[in-house]
Write a structure and sequence with these properties.
The protein has about 240 residues and is α/β, with parallel strands linked by helices. It has helices spanning about 15-20, 40-45, 60-65, 110-120, 135-140, 145-160, 185-190, 200-210, and strands at about 1-5, 10, 30-35, 50-55, 75-80, 90-95, 120-130, 165-180, 215, 220-235. The protein is globular. The protein starts with a strand and ends with a strand.
Length: about 240
């Protein structure tokens, strides 16, 4: 098992570089659960033109945007991780990038069982989850406190390992830079995503703007987001 859980996590600009270090991607058939705008998926296929990737997304608005921007070997399906519409052993690897904690908590175990089902023996799950810490987290928790669901995601991975379907292949932490041009950019991306309604009223907006202001400068607002990666291997 690879483990780099030091007190000074590595700073990684592009998570695809880390993924490339951990698992073979060339020529693989992959699935991403909760692909969002599929930014990493598109970059992955540009880097590995013989790979194929299917992105699942439950946000209908984002799914429509994805379909409107086709790319060779990239397929989009409107579905959730708890009910993956593919046959057993269909994929070599699975990605969950900041998405496991968005699965409804009662369905997390089912989602991980589904991932195990559609992976070939020896296939892998790369689960990358944000850590509930840091300056950006302190801003976001004002309107979207994810402490409980992020802890539940880690517990679901622990439980999955005890199920006998998986073994740990690697575990590590890193930090990734996050930048916002200004508060309007932060509001659009973090406070008003298409996949969730955070019930932002004028008072909340003003409170978050006030807490955001000290981080803003001529080059915008710069943060680092701590991340926790767990790489699980599908047992035969």
């Amino acid at each position: 098992m690879t483990s780099t859980m030091s007190s000074t996590p590595r700073l990684i600009d592009d998570e695809l570089d880390l993924l490339d270090e951990l698992v073979p991607l060339a020529g693989r058939r992959l699935i991403e659960l909760g692909c969002g705008n599929a930014r990493l998926a598109r970059a992955l296929l540009e880097r590995h033109p013989d790979a194929e990737l299917t992105g699942l997304e439950v946000d209908q608005r984002q799914h429509a945007k994805n379909l409107a921007a086709p790319q060779p070997r990239l397929h989009f399906v409107a579905a959730g991780a708890q009910a993956i519409p593919f046959a057993d052993a269909s994929f070599d690897g699975a990605l969950m990038l900041k998405s496991l904690h968005h699965v409804p908590q009662p369905l997390m175990a089912q989602a991980l069982a589904e991932v195990a089902r559609v992976l070939r023996p020896g296939g892998w799950l790369y689960a990358s989850e944000p850590v509930f810490a840091g300056a950006l987290n302190e801003l976001v928790r004002l309107f979207n406190d994810e402490q409980a669901v992020r802890a539940a995601a880690q517990q679901a991975l622990d439980d999955a390992l005890r199920s006998g379907r998986w073994e740990t292949a690697a575990e590590l932490r890193f930090e990734t830079p996050v930048q916002f041009a200004d508060f309007a950019d932060f509001e659009q991306r973090m406070m008003r995503p298409t996949f969730a309604d955070h019930h932002i009223d004028d008072a909340m907006l003003a409170a978050v703007r006030e807490r955001f202001a000290p981080h803003a400068g001529a080059q915008g607002a710069r943060f680092t987001r701590p991340m926790h990666v767990r790489l699980l291997r599908r047992l035969a």
